[in-house]
Amino acid sequence: ALSDVVISKKDTRRLQENILMSHAAGVGEPLDEQTVRAVMALRIKDLARGHSGIRLETVQHLVALLNWGVCPVIPRKGSVGASGDLAPLAHLALVLLGRGEAFYKGRRISGRQVLSKCGLTPIQLESGEGLALVNGTQVMTAIGALGVYDAIRLSKMTDIAAAMSLEVLMGSRTEFNKKIHLVRPHPGQATAADNMERIIQNSEIITSHKDCSQIQDAYTLRCSPQVHGATKDAIDYCRNVIQTEMNSSTNNPLIFSDSQDFLLGGNFHGQPVALALDFLSIAVSELANISERRIERLVNPMLSGLPAFLVSDGGLNSGFMIAQYTAAALVSENKVLCHPASVDSIPTSANKEDHVSMGTISARQCREVIKNTENVIAIELLCAAQALDLFTNLKPGDGTLAAYQVIREAISPLETDRVLSKDIANMKELIRSDRILRPVEKRVGRLLPV
Prior knowledge:
Blueprint: H1 12-23, E1 27-30, H2 33-48, H3 56-67, E2 71-72, E3 75-77, H4 86-94, E4 101-104, E5 107-110, H5 111-117, H6 129-134, H7 138-168, H8 178-182, H9 187-199, H10 204-207, H11 219-222, H12 224-246, E6 254-256, E7 261-263, H13 271-299, H14 301-304, H15 321-337, H16 359-388, H17 398-410, H18 421-432, H19 437-444
Antiparallel strand pairs: 1-3, 2-4, 4-5, 6-7
C-alpha cells in the first residue's frame, strides 16, 4: 500500500531506521544462539554477493558482531516467509544501530551497550540499506540447514538402532541382500540396507537361528531399508534445496552492477524452503513411527520372547513400560507438527503480498520433529541395549557391539526400576555428540546418508 509513496532525499536516512523499527514486531522466546549465528552468517553471505545495494561498511559491521560473539535477540515468531523473514531480520539489524537487544557473554543487554563493549559505534544506514537488511530468507534457511545436518546424523543412528533391534529380536539378514535392492534402485534404500548389513556383520546372534522355522520378519524389521531409505532420499532432496538457498541472492530489488540493471522480483519468497522443510518433517517423522513400533516389539513379551518390558521381577518392576508410552506420545505429537505450513497463505501488506510461504513456521516445526525423533531413537537404543544384555554367550555384529560398548560405558543396565528420563537424555546426548556413530563407523566403515 505504501510502495508508490515517494520519499524525499532528506528523509532517506530516517526511512532506513523506521523500516527496521517498524518491522521489528516479532513475538515469542528468542531463537537459540546456534540458530542466530547461522542466520548472521547466511545474511552476511547473501549481502556479500553484491546484489543488494548495501555498503561494504555495513556488511563489515555485521561481520564484527558475529566475530565478537554477539547474539541479537530475535523473537522466534512473526515471519510469514515472503518478503523473506522481515520481522526476525529486523530484530537482528537493529543491533547495528545500537537499538534492540543482544546476548553477550551470557547477559541480555541493549544494542547500544553491546556495541560499546565491543568497541563499535552505531552505524548510519544509507539509502536502500534498511530494506536490504530485512529482505531475505536467511532465518528459515538457517533453521533448515541445522535441521538437515541433524537429520543426516539421525538417519544413520536410526540404521544402528534398527540393526541392534533386529539382532535381539532374532531377525534375518536376508532383507539386506543386495539383489533385493538392485531391482528397486532407490539410492536411499540401497544405502540403508548396506549400512545395516555392515553393522550386523559377523553377528553370532543372527547365525545362531539361521535354520529356525520363522519365514519372514515383521515389517518394522524387514522393511526397514525401504522406510529408512525413503527418508534418506528425502533428506538428500532437502539438502540440495537448502544448499541452493544458502548460495542465493534473496533480496528485492536485485542490483546487477555489470549491466546497471535494477530489477524488482520475488527471490525473497520462501516457497522452495517451505515445501522442502515440510517434506523433511514428514520424512523424519517416519523414522520415529517405525522406531516406536520396534520399541513395542522389544518390550512386548508376546512379540519378542524377551522378559516383559525388558526387566526382571516384572510386576514389582515396570522396566521400559512407560518409555514406550513416551515414544508413542512423541510420535503422536510429530503427526500434528507434520501438518504442512506451506499449504497455508494469508495475504499481508494490504493485499500487495497476497501469497506467502509460511516457510519459517515449516522450519520451526521441522526442528521440533527432529528433536522428538531423536528422543524416540534414544529410547529404542536403550531398549535394544537392555535386550542385548541377555545375549551373554553370543557375540553381536561388529557395529552393534561398538554401539553397545559406548552405551554401556555411559548408561548402566536397568536391573530395577529407576527414573528413566535421565537415561533418555544421556542417550540423546550420545546420539547428538556422535559418540556412538564414530566408533561404529571406525569398526564397519562410513555409514552413508544416501
